[in-house]
Amino acid sequence: MKSLPAAFTIAIAGLFALNGASAQEIKIKFAHSLSTTEPAHLAAEYFAKNVAARTGGKVQISVFPAEQLGSGKDVNEMIRQGANVMNITDPGYLSDFVPDVGVLNGPYLIKTPQDYDKLLASSWFKGIEKKLETAGFKLIMANGFFGQRHLIADKAVRKPEDIAGMTVRVPPNTMWIETFKAMGARPTTVQWSEVYNALSQNVVQAAEAPLGSLWGSKLQETRKFISMTGHFTAFTMWPINASYFNKLPKDVQQILIEEGAKGGAEMTRLTLATQDDYVAKLKASGVTFVNDVDVPAFQKATASVYTVFPKWSPGLRETVLSNLK
C-alpha cells in the first residue's frame, strides 16, 4: 500500500486524538463537501443539535462543510481507518469498499424517496449494510434525499446528440464516468470545491448536480442553461467507523441511529420543499430551464452502464428493481 500524504496522515492523527479527550464526553467531526445553504448541511446541523439535546451535551458533533476535512474520498478513508468522524457521502463513493451498493447511484433507476425507502427496508439492503460494516462503515443514516441531478451548461441539452463530445465535470466515481461516457460526453473528474473555477476557466463545459448544489456553489454565474435531465435520483448516506460505533455506550448508539433517521427525513423534507424556490432563484439570476428533455433517449443511451461493473453480483439491477415492486 502506498504511503498517505503527510497532511492526510496528520488529519487522521488529530481525529484519533479526540478519542482520549474525556471519558465523559464524545466528540465527533461531521464532514461534507457542500455549502452551508444546502439541505444536506442543514440536516447535519439538525442532527447534531438533536443528539446534543438528547445526551445532555455528552455527545458533541461539529459539522465541517466545504471539504474542510478533505475530499469525500479522503474522509471515507479516514472513517475506514478508524477515525471518529462522519461524512455525508453517497452509494457511489461507498462502492469503493462494497461494490454492489454502487447500483443505487445508477442512471434512471430510482424515481422517488418512497421507492428508496421501500428499498432500504428490503432484505437485500440489510445485506448491504452488513457488508459495509465488515468493510468498516456503520450507516448512521441512509435515507437522505439529495434530489434529482441535472445538467448546467452553456447550451440546451435535449437529447444525447446535444451532449456528444461535451466536457462534463463529474466526481471521481466510476458510475458518473461511465454514465456520461454512455451519453456521449467526455467526463472530467474535478473535486466539487473546484468546479466553479473549472467552469469559469473553461476546463469543463458543463457540470451536473441537484438544483440546491448548483445554486449553493453559484454555478449559475458561469453557465446559463439547466437541462432537466434527471439522470440520477440521488440519496446520501452518513457513515461512521463501525468499530468506533460499537465501542460507544448502547444508549448513545441508539440515539445516533434514531436521530440519523430523523436527520434523513428532515433532509428529504427540506430538499422537496426548496425545489420551487431554487428554480425561482435560478431563473431570477438569468438561467434558462430546459424542460423538454428527451428522457427516454437518455435512458436508452445509459442502459449499457449496468453491464460495465464486473465486481457487481450477477443480476444486481434486476434484484434492486424486484424490491421496488
Quick structural summary:
This protein has 325 residues and is α/β, with parallel strands linked by helices. Helices cover 44% and strands 20% of the residues. It has helices at residues 6-17, 39-54, 72-81, 91-94, 113-120, 123-134, 160-163, 174-183, 195-200, 211-216, 242-247, 250-284, 295-302, 316-322; strands spanning 26-31, 59-64, 85-87, 137-153, 167-170, 186-189, 206-209, 225-241, 288-290.
Description:
With 325 residues, the protein is of the alpha/beta class. It has a single domain, classed as Bacterial extracellular solute-binding protein, family 7 (D-Maltodextrin-Binding Protein, domain 2), CATH 3.40.190. 44% of the residues lie in helices and 20% in strands. It contains 14 helices and nine strands. The chain has helices at residues 6-17, 39-54, 72-81, 91-94, 113-120, 123-134, 160-163, 174-183, 195-200, 211-216, 242-247, 250-284, 295-302, 316-322; strands at 26-31, 59-64, 85-87, 137-153, 167-170, 186-189, 206-209, 225-241, 288-290. The strands form two sheets. The chain has a six-stranded mixed sheet with strand order 6-5-7-4-8-9, sandwiched between helices. Strands 2-1-3 form a three-stranded parallel sheet. α2 links the parallel β1 and β2. The protein is globular. 45% of the residues are buried. Residues 17-22 have low confidence and may be disordered.
